[in-house]
From TrEMBL:
Protein name: Porin
Example GO molecular function: porin activity
Signal sequence, renumbered to the chain: 1-21
GO BP annotations listed: carbohydrate transport
Keyword ATP-binding: no
Keywords: Signal
Family note: Belongs to the OprB family.
UniProt keyword Signal, yes or no: yes
Species per Swiss-Prot/TrEMBL record: Sediminitomix flava
Amino acid sequence: MKFAISLLIALLLFVTFQGVAQNDADTLKDFTGPAAVGNQLINDSRPNRATRFWYALDSLDKKKERFYERTGFIAGVDYNSQIMAATNVIGNTVGASGVFRIYGKWNMVKPGTNHEGGLIFKVENRHRYSDNALREYGPLDVGYAGFMQSVYNNQSWRVTNLYWRQVLGGQDKVVIYAGFVDITDWTDVYVVASPWQSFNNLVFATGSGALGGGYPDGSFGVMVNAWLTEQFYATASIVDTNGDPTEFWKGFESFFGDFETVKTLEVGYTPNGLSSAFFKNAHITFWQVDKRAEGGTPNGWGIIGSWSWLYGKYLPFVRFGWADDGLSFYDYSISAGFAYNIIGASNLGVGINLNKPNSSTFGLDLDTQYSGEFFYKWQATHHSELTPNLQLIGNPAFNTNDNFSVVFGLRARVFL
């Protein structure tokens, strides 16, 4: 399977460069997730966002845009804070964490042209308020096998993104990322995949929790995104599984020295190109991960599938993941639900999931888990969001005393 995935990635690269030579009339761009730096910057500056209470920072947005037009440089900053409390636990009842982020891009080579190139960066400080950060709150406190919030850990300062983005002719038909990347920025994305603004639980994000390799971010890697036609796109990547975002500079040595990587290949369909890619999308993703000698984790592979389609203001979705080892959380995971008013400033989402924890990863043969989640993101002001959240956890695998827990959450985000 490892050879097959590598061969498919090589074929994609060949087809990609052939496609650029054949047709440069398209105006399509790279398709990445809502939490990727470029999309986060666009989302933060959307003109239709609510400005109900104050307008003091609106002029700053306009100055940033003018500066970007002159220099090709733009940056954003935000602070994210979240608290969770559960009814039945094996540890602490309450968990809370915060994350400070600086993110941006600098288009240094031919900005605004068909050969644009630039630096993408994201620096974060992730910290806890409680005994356990929210990333660990699920397994250690609630007894849930998985992440009920995947990004709020206690790593302190880290570099999540520091890579070069290069357009290869064809008016953004092909885009390459190379450097220190986050695999969740492009793998199995859909419009409510962001743990900063949408669902919290990993089962409603990348791979439905069934992607192997430990979801590396701040790791050295390469990604190629190509629009094969106006309706079909493909994305291939190879990323180091030994990367450490708190010491990202060591990634060169681990990538080229150990060469223990996770590979992905995704093919997707959307009816109207990039304009509909977030809102009407179906894709399938194949992944393979190498055995890690130092980490002692096995190799593995898997398949991920997703369908999400906008009907009026409703966007239903069905997603699944299946894995054969590879440090995946689950042998299989199936999610379904819907989002409402996702194009608007304030929106909500509802999802349900069932999953079977991977005995190889957890070292135990655990029972099937069930979960549901509801969130409502309220755009309080032009530069602040408040998101109440509710998770229902059925049969939490590590809780031998209770088979059900209700988890209340509240997330706040302030951004400039």
